[in-house]
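User: I'm putting together a teaching handout on how sequence relates to shape, and I'd like one worked example. Could you take Ribulose-phosphate 3-epimerase from Sphaeramia orbicularis, show the sequence you're using, and then write out its predicted structure as C-alpha cells right after it?

Assistant: Happy to. First the sequence, then the C-alpha cells directly below it.
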Amino acid sequence: MAYSAKIGPSILSSDLSCLGSECVRMMECGADYLHLDVMDGHFVPNLTFGHPMVECLRKSVGQDPFFDMHMMVSRPEQWVKPMAAAGANQYTFHLEATTNPGSLIKDIRESGMKVGLAIKPGTTVEELAPWANQIDMALVMTVEPGFGGQKFMEDMMPKVSWLRSQFPSLDIEVDGGVGPDTIHKCAEAGANMIVSGSAVIGSDDPRSVIALLRTVVAEAIQKRSLDR
C-alpha cells in the first residue's frame, strides 16, 4: 500500500486574474498538489490555458508545488515537451485522445514527468487496465470533462473500486463534483488523489475543507489496510 491521501485544488475555479497568488494561497492552506486543467476547445468544448501560463506560474510560485496537468486536448503528443519545459510535474492525458498510449507514456517518462491516464465517464475502466502498470496515476472523471460545477456522478465509483482491487498501489484520482458531500463515496471506493474545485477554492475556509477531505481519505486508506 504505497499510496497516501493527497488533495489537489483545481485552480481553474480560482480568480484567474491573480492565479499566482491563488496557487500560493492553496498551498498555504495545506494542498498537496495543484490540478491544472488544460482544455483546447476541440477535445472538450471549452478553452483554458497552455504551457506559457504554466511557465509563468512556475516562476511565480517556485519549485515546490506539484503541477498535475490534466490535458483535455485532442493531440496530447504535441504538448509533452512544452509542458515539461514549462515546469509541469505530471502529464495526465486522456485515453480517448490518442491511438498510441504506449508511445505517449514513454515520451512523458523520457521528458522527466510522471504519467497520468484519464478516462471520461463513457469509457470503461477495462480499456485503461492494459496501461495501469505503466502509469503513475489513473484519473476517473466523475463528470463529463469541459465544464466546472457539474453534479458528481456516483455511478463512476465502481470504476474506482475495480482499479483499487486490481492495482492496489496505484494512485487513483477523482475529478468532478468532489467536495465534503461526496468525498466519503470516493474514499470508500479507493480514490486517494482528490481534485476539488469550487468546494475548496470557493470556501470561506479552504484550509478546513482540505483537512476534512484528507482526513476522510486517510481514514479509508487505514481501514483498507486493516481489512486486508
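A couple of points you could highlight for students: The chain has one domain: 6-227. The beta strands are 6-9, 34-39, 67-72, 90-94, 114-119, 137-141, 171-175, 193-196.
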